[in-house]
Amino acid sequence: MLQFQTxxxxxxxxxxxxxxxxxxxxxxxxxxEKLGRCYxxxxxxxxxxxxxxxxxxxxxxxxxxALTMWWGHTPL
Length: 76
What we know:
Layout: H1 2-13, E1 14-17, E2 24-26, H2 30-35, H3 51-72
Antiparallel strand pairs: 1-2
């Protein structure tokens, strides 16, 4: 039972696992918070890309395309 509680506590305290070395990275890890790096292997953005970082450029392109189409349409 103690092992289950320890695993659960580790899972609650971690932000994710490093893609390179598999180290569990705590949310409150100072190196991760400040530099965005794994404290064991030094990989930048160790838990992988965020969905917001992936979707932001796509959303901006779609918004600019919609604005261009609206601005350039001919009146009826």
